[in-house]
Amino acid sequence: MSLRPPKTAMLLAQRIVADINRRGNTVGDRLPPERVMLDEYDVGRGTLRESLRFLELQGVLSLKPGPGGGPVVQRPDAGSLATTLTLLLQFENAPFRTIAEARAGLEPMMARLAAERMSPEQLDALGASVDAMREHLEDQAVFLEENKRFHDIIAHGSGNVMFGYLIDALLGILDGSAIGIDYPEVRRSAVHKAHLRIYQALKNRDPESSAEAMARHITEYVRYAERKFPEVLAAPIVWANL
């Protein structure tokens, strides 16, 4: 079954988004009620509702039920991208190694760009993440949270919005705790040292060293997973694993 609405509803969804941008609507703004939108767009109720449901699935709107309800503007995040990628990969029978290989290709490039483009505030946040991981090495939950935050900050610090969303999505799919990769404290300590090396290279604004440190870090992760959890990397990506 297609996740896309019929063509007329898709075209209407595009018009609604264009009007959101034109009006300068922000998160939390309420769109006109259904009767107004029906007149404004000159469409049937079924087409309008199909368009709104599609935009809700994409994270553009939330639909509030009841009196005084209706469509409310939201900000899309990487969740829908992760779901779409997961479904595409699942139907290709792609293993989790696919995500690891993609990260190995993308993240050194992001680190290279981030060395030149990261703001002082982003560097401060990155340093705070490194410190938080060190202070809570005994806690795997904190480790996983800081590990994701570290890579997210660098991706967004690259100055390329697409990289930020891609890494958000890829990390959402390749969540080690969810797919069965465990990190004993000795491994968490090794990851912390790798993060510290990357942070220092970024702080020095050294693109080559930043890219090399990131490439080494991702390679070490893949080698660890292949040595300890080969069956996990070889397992096919399944949406239910998210």
CATH-defined superfamily of the largest domain: GntR ligand-binding domain-like
Biggest sheet overview: 2 strands, antiparallel
- The helical percent reads over 70%
Judged by helices, strands and strand pairing, the structural class is mainly alpha
**In total, how many beta strands?**
2
The number of distinct structural domains comes to: 2
State the helix count. 12
How are the strands of the largest sheet arranged?
A: 1-2
Strand coverage percent: under 5%
CATH architecture of the largest domain: Up-down Bundle
Give the N-to-C terminal Cα separation.
21 Å
Keywords: DNA-binding, Transcription, Transcription regulation
GO molecular function, one term: DNA-binding transcription factor activity
Pfam families: FCD, GntR
Protein name: DNA-binding FadR family transcriptional regulator
